[in-house]
Amino acid sequence: MLFGSSAAVCGAVVALAIFGPATGSEIATVHSSHVVNAACGDAIVGAASMYNPFEPGKEEGGPSTASGERYDRSVWAAAIKTSLRRKFGGVEFGARPKYALVEAVGKKVIVKINDVGPLRPGRIIDLNERTMRYFDPSLERGVISDVKVSPLAGDYWVPGPVG
Fold first, then answer.
1. The CATH number of the domain where 64 resides is what?
2. How confident is the model at residue 131 (pLDDT cuts 50, 70, 90)?
């Protein structure tokens, strides 16, 4: 019961952060500091790497994601470690995508979680090319340590940088 109550409170906080108080005022932007504060669930900290199944020599996955979408390097998306699937509300074929707040190197971005994978030890998330370039424009690092990933409640987030 406690879990259900905290989930309901979290959902209410998220709705308030997105839509603001019901006073007829303008709808607040999704990418506000209020949304960052409304991230639900315990954050996971670990390493992030990049995946692109179309690069030669890549051993992981293929062009289809766990959600049924085709891999797209130009959107804000990521794959979480398979063992974290439940924490993110499930990432299932044909289901609505899940969303997360990813924080690293002083930057924050909302990503669509549309895939899962076994990932290498210590890694909790694989970012697609666009998302990795946001954190590492030259793609020289390969792996970013101390990445914080927080599940976001709800299904209607707009992926992209958080201002």
1. 2.40.40.10
2. very high
